[in-house]
């Protein structure tokens, strides 16, 4: 349709035309584009007033009453619409969804996948050179899997020059039915696990399919990342009609990822050497012995063992949909929990895996898994820094939550007053300054969040610093203990909390970066909502968290030189997080520390023209300073676009864009 409008009317169809004419563009019985449906669509274009005017202007003759000429033009239009040069660059997804679409819209994703495949074909300027990387891939086929296994075999035959061998465990009768034909040497009958000598191995199920050229794509990455012990890709499912649905467009690797379930997915490429190192350990796992079909859970146990103790850079996420599931995921969640608990008991006995409801939690929602990290025998002192000005209601409620509703026993509070003048506020500051845990600092001058926190940090005594807004309220007593537990983990420099608006909707579940700046993930979501791929209920590594409730180790704060005071109002917390990451420390967000946050309650929102200008000036400086990291945030899949309240599919790009 797009090519026909482009050729016939010199424009693309609008949304109304797409909805109105879609039935003409496909055959009613089969739902496919046929010659008859193309001719039907061509007649509509040729008979339109716009086509008449354009033709008469170009050719100087009228076609209004010339039936033969109309028919000839229809035939020419059908041919022209199928020419590659006329179809090039027309993205079906962008035509039908000009404002993009959310991930749970399967129809939109099916079109998006087609557009991505088209864009990748156009961008493929030269054929990949044959790689030296080889793969041994293993599949078990039962008597009822022959037909579905043919789908798998066909996908392997479309792997181009990739060097692969598929090892099939099956009876003689079943293997003969597979009839691999001329590729007999690549399809081997085996009864031995890990047969072969290829440096990389994978395991799949009958009916699963690789995307065309998937192994060549994977091999190209492994060529430049030879230290890889585990590589995982994005994936989806193909329904009986052949449509791509239920996309899993995954974020980058996070240390807690596998402890919360098999979030890595079906297509996992393992280093053979690493698998052999941990294989003996799997033989001792009692939970795996009695399973009738143990592949999924055996693979989960294998992944846990493979990633244990390796460096993060040895685990690679390849953000491309290279794998298509045959069946819906039906993993045994309870068994996976037992396997994860057993793994932790063996390798990290100080860590406990529990099911912990969030506070508050949406009725009927899944209970999230919490990885509870140990505390030190001597609890570290936490210095809580609270900038404030003339909002005694906020400050009073915040201090009450800290002093009366927080279980963690070792903290000091430093209230930084930025020029309050109201009598009620001055009286409150005078009162709280007499409390043995509270210190009040008076700092005059224009509001500069970075400067206020830096000056308080210089006066503080704690091993951990907690930057806290005065419009934050406590919801559960162990919130501070959870943040301390996370911040004491090896390599963790900053910890962020889950913040809710006063109406219970989500305000902060991490900050996502883009070339346009920083955006909170799924702001406004229901408090108990799990989010895409459970992003809102799982603790994980991020690039940045908000400074409204941010804990940082003092040694890290000092190492990076504190907060950059040139970011007076906006982006100072994001810049701090990025400098912490650049220094080699991790940023972790936990949903198990949940607080209420008014968001801009004391300072107000950036609403006036000077405030808006200041915000965008500081955002521009942030993006300029951290261009590479802003353009590709590891915590969000590059195929996704984060807006203020949604995760949307990103428009595919063509060569030259």
From TrEMBL:
Domain of life according to the entry: Bacteria
Domain Glycosyltransferase 2-like: 383-560
CDD domains assigned: GT_2_like_c (cd04186)
Cited InterPro entries: Glyco_trans_2-like, Nucleotide-diphossugar_trans
Pfam families: Glycos_transf_2
Protein's recorded name: Glycosyltransferase 2-like domain-containing protein
């Amino acid at each position: 349709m797009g090519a026909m409008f482009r050729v016939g009317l010199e424009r693309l169809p609008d949304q109304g035309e797409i909805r109105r004419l879609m039935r003409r563009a496909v055959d009613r019985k089969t739902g496919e584009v046929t010659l008859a449906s193309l001719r039907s669509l061509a007649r509509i274009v040729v008979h339109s007033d716009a086509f008449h005017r354009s033709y008469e202007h170009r050719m100087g003759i009228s076609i209004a009453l010339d039936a033969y000429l109309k028919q000839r033009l229809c035939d020419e239009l059908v041919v022209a619409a199928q020419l590659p040069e006329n179809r090039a660059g027309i993205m079906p997804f962008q035509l039908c969804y000009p404002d993009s679409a959310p991930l749970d819209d399967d129809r939109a994703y099916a079109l998006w996948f087609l557009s991505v495949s088209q864009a990748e074909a156009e961008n493929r300027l030269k054929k990949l050179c044959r790689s030296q990387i080889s793969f041994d891939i293993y599949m078990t086929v039962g008597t009822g899997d022959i037909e579905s296994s043919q789908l798998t075999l066909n996908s392997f035959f479309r792997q181009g020059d990739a060097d692969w061998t598929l090892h099939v465990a099956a009876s003689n009768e079943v293997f003969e039915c597979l009839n691999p034909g001329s590729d007999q040497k690549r399809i081997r009958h085996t009864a031995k696990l890990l047969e072969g000598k290829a440096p990389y191995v994978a395991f799949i199920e009958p009916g699963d399919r690789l995307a065309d050229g998937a192994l060549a794509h994977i091999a190209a990455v492994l060529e430049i990342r030879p230290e890889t012990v585990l590589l995982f890709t994005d994936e989806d499912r193909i329904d009986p009609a052949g449509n791509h649905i239920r996309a899993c467009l995954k974020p980058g690797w996070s240390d807690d990822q596998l402890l919360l379930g098999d979030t890595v997915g079906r297509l996992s490429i393992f280093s053979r050497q690493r698998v052999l190192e941990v294989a003996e350990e799997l033989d001792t796992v009692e939970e795996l012995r009695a399973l009738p079909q143990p592949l999924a859970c055996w693979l989960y146990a294998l992944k846990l063992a493979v990633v244990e103790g390796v460096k993060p850079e040895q685990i690679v996420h390849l953000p491309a949909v290279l794998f298509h599931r045959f069946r819906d995921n039906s993993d045994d969640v309870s068994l996976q929990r037992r396997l994860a608990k057993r793994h932790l008991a063996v390798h990290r006995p100080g860590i406990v895996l529990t099911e912990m409801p969030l506070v508050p939690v949406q009725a009927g929602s899944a209970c999230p898994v919490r990885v509870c990290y140990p505390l030190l025998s001597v609890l570290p002192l936490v210095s809580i820094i609270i900038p404030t000005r003339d909002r005694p209601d906020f400050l009073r409620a915040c201090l009450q939550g800290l002093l009366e509703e927080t279980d963690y026993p070792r903290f000091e509070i430093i209230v930084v007053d930025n020029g309050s003048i109201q009598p009620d506020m001055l009286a409150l500051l005078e009162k709280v300054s007499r409390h043995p845990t509270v210190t009040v600092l008076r700092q005059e001058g224009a509001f500069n969040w970075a400067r206020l926190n830096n000056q308080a940090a210089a006066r503080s005594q704690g091993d951990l610093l907690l930057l806290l807004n005065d419009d934050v309220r406590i919801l559960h007593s162990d919130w501070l203990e959870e943040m301390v537990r996370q911040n004491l983990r090896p390599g963790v420099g900053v910890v962020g909390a889950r913040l809710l608006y006063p109406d219970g909707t989500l305000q902060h579940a991490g900050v996502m970066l883009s070339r346009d700046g920083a955006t909170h993930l799924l702001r406004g979501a229901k408090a108990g909502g799990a989010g895409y791929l459970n992003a809102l209920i799982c603790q994980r590594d991020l690039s940045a968290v908000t400074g409204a409730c941010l804990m940082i180790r003092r040694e890290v704060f000092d190492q990076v030189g504190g907060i950059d005071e040139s970011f007076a109002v906006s982006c100072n917390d994001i810049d701090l997080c990025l400098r912490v990451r650049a220094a080699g420390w991790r940023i972790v967000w936990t949903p198990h520390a949940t607080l209420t946050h008014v968001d801009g309650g004391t300072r107000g929102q950036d609403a006036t023209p000077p405030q808006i200008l200041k915000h965008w000036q500081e955002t521009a400086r942030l993006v300029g300073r951290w261009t590479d990291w802003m353009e590709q945030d590891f915590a969000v899949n590059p195929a996704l676009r984060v807006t203020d309240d949604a995760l949307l599919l990103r428009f595919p790009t063509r060569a030259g864009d």
